[in-house]
Design a protein that fits this description.
Layout (H helix, E strand, L loop, with lengths): L1 H23 L7 H23 L4 H27 L5 H24 L2
């Protein structure tokens, strides 16, 4: 059962990071080393830290990686909002990304609560 939940969460995280990469391909070239890079790194950090934490045996270490993952998710959500306000992404794309981020956040929060 636990692996089904984790697999579903990883699939959503994978979808999220690929969506972010797709959206940032349209960002202005002058943002390549700014918002584009920061948003991509934050989105990628969500899944990478989750996977690394999942592989750890000690609860405290696992919790630390998952908290970093959760923090990166929050960072990426703000960067999506920033990108919307700067008109780098459309309202439709923003809503799609945020909906997915909210689903991930709820599942990640549940995972964090389960190891406390």
């Amino acid at each position: 059962m636990r692996n089904d939940f984790s697999d579903k969460l990883k699939r959503k995280m994978d979808e999220y990071v690929h969506l972010v990469y797709k959206l940032t391909r349209k960002f202005p070239k002058e943002e390549l080393y700014g918002t584009t890079s920061q948003l991509r790194r934050a989105a990628l950090s969500v899944i990478l830290n989750y996977i690394e934490g999942f592989a750890r045996q000690k609860k405290a270490v696992k919790q630390n990686f998952w908290e970093i993952s959760y923090g990166s998710l929050k960072e990426s959500k703000y960067l999506l909002y920033f990108s919307l306000k700067e008109t780098y992404i459309t309202q439709k794309d923003y809503k799609k990304a945020i909906k997915l981020a909210e689903e991930i956040g709820a599942m990640l929060w549940r995972s964090l609560q389960s190891i406390k």
